[in-house]
Every structure is written in C-alpha cells, then in structure tokens.
Amino acid sequence: MMAQNMRIDSSGNLLVGTTVTPNTLAGASATQGVAVNGSTGYLVAAANGTATAYFNRQTSDGGIVEFRKDGSTVGSIGVKDGGIGSPRLIIGEGDTGIAFQSHVDNSITPIKTDGGNRDNVLNLGAPSHRFKDLYLSGGVYLGGTGSANKLDDVEFGTFNPTIAGSTSTGAPSSYTKREGRYAKMGHLVHVQITLGWSSHTGTGNMSIRDLPFLAVSGGITGQSVLSVGYNAGLSRTADRAMEIYVANGTSQGNFTETAANGDIQGLAIDANVTEIIIAGTYYSQPPLLDHRVVSPFKHRR
Predict the structure, then answer these.
(1) Which of 20, 60, 170, 246 has the fewest CB atoms found within 10 Å of its own CB?
(2) Phi/psi at 129 (nearest 5 deg)?
C-alpha cells in the first residue's frame, strides 16, 4: 500500500505531510506539515527546527511578499540592491517604509517601498500615537547632522557641595543645611544649592567645592557666575555685589564681592552661616564621578 503524503479530509481541508487539522497544526501540536483550511482559506505551515517558509525573488529588485485587503495593497516586504552588491530588506507601504541595511553602518533608514530614498519626510509617532521610552547608548542629532547638533547627555541628579577656605580648607563641625541638585543637558550644567553650617575651621577666602562636573578649560567660557539668591548669616560688605565665579577646569566656585567701581575681592569665610541659596549655570567637560551620589530623579537619555 502506498504511503499517503497528501489528502483532503471530509471538511475540505488540504493536508500535506500531516493528518491533523489546520487549527491543530497552528496550535501547540508537535506535528509538522502544511495545511489549508477549506472553509476559511487560511494556510498553516509547521516545521521542526527550521524556517517554515522561503520566498526567493530572482533577477530583479521589488516585492517578495505583498499584503492586500479586499484586493488593495496595504503593504509589502521586498528587496532593493544597496548599490554595493548587498540587498536591503524593505518593509512598508507606498512611500512609507524602512530599510534594514547591514552594509551601511548597520542602520535602519526611511525609504520608499520601491527603494527610493526618503530624507527628512517621515515622522516617528504622532501627537496622539506616541511611542513610550527610547533607550540610546549614543546621542540624538536635533535640527541638523553636524557635531554641534548632537545631544548625548541629559541628566537630573543630586550632589554634596562643600564649603572650604583658600588658606586652609577646614571643615564645619556640621552642615545644618546641605543640598545640591543639578540638571545637565550636553555640556550645560544648571545647579541649585542650599547650604548652612556651624563652627567652620577654614581660613582665607571662601569657596564652594565639589560641584557635580568639572568646568570646561580654556578661554573665558569656564568662568561662569553663580548667583546667591538668599543669604542669612554670611558677612559681606553692604555696598558690594556678591557673586561666585566657577574657575576654568575646576569643580569649585570662589565667592567674591564687586564694588560699584568694578573692584573685585574675595569674600572671607564665615565660621557660622544659617543659610545661603545659590543657583546658576556653567559649561562642563567630562564629569567627576568620585563625589556624585545616586540621584532620586529619573535619568533621561
């Protein structure tokens, strides 16, 4: 008796290499084969340890599989030569598609389904159809493709600022208030600081140290100014403005007083200060890692 490799069962299902129904073959059955449901027309293929289908377009570029709804094409999977003998897999519909290009910087790029390039046209998501989180190990180019358009670091975090003297660093017996927060976008760092202390042993002019990132070196760019918005207990000359200069290539700011005639002098350290509130922005170079603490805020990339 000849072995039966293909049959049509009583329900009109075409079975090749199997005797189970299409519904069973599409489920968790360990059976392999091909089945066509005779009543609804769906096709099932099951294989053990290998691909279940091969579609091989020869000679020319174009669609490999075309998807239709009521006779109208709604999408396709196709191929287009990448120009250097490496075909690109293209998925999409009409002028909206993506190409998977292992031969071009391992990239996924916007493209037409006929292989034509699509530059600066397609959107990712829409106002009411948004993606959620985006995880990147590199950066984002915003508004251009040059190095000046690359944003590769956005952070929100906390740090522990300290007060020190210029002649002798010293330290307080305790910090009655101590809080530092930062927001960093690229090389631009904004800090907000609240400090209070008692019985500081430092001498000389006062500085704030352990800012979260080193200021950029060279030129006048690193010489940013932080402002003292509130002061309770810090001694100062009444007719002089108080500033904090962030020095080039350092993670510290030096307290100064400026007279109306432009004369600038350092501000002597006070042993006891109830509270000062500081805020400002400076440009950074690569971060210091030894004194930053774990942030309670969500880090964003």
Answers:
(1) 60
(2) -135, 75
DSSP string, 206-242: EEEE--SEEEPPSTTTT-EEEEEEEEES----TTSEE
Tell me the residue range of the domain where 37 lies: 6-46
Q: How many CB atoms lie within 10 A of CB 25?
A: 22
| Domain's final residue, options 79, 100, 132 | 132
Cα–Cα distance measured from residue 184 to residue 154, given in angstroms and rounded to the nearest whole number: 5
| Tens digits of pLDDT across the chain (301 residues) | 556 788 888 889 999 989 898 889 988 777 899 999 999 999 999 999 999 999 999 988 899 999 999 999 999 999 988 665 567 899 999 999 999 888 767 888 899 888 888 899 999 999 999 999 999 888 899 889 898 888 888 999 999 999 999 999 999 999 999 999 999 998 899 999 999 999 999 999 999 999 999 998 876 544 689 999 999 998 888 788 889 999 888 999 999 998 878 888 899 999 999 999 999 999 998 544 434 443 433 333 3
Q: Which of 98, 132, 166 is the last residue of a domain?
A: 132
239 lies in some domain: yes
Number of domains in the chain: 3
Q: Is residue 263 part of a domain?
A: yes
**pTM: predicted TM-score of the whole model, two decimal places:** 0.70
CATH code assigned at 213: 2.60.90
Among candidates 131, 99, 133, which has minimal Cα distance to 115?
Answer: 99
Q: What angle do CA 62, 67, 70 make, to 5 degrees?
A: 130
Domain-located, residue 278: yes
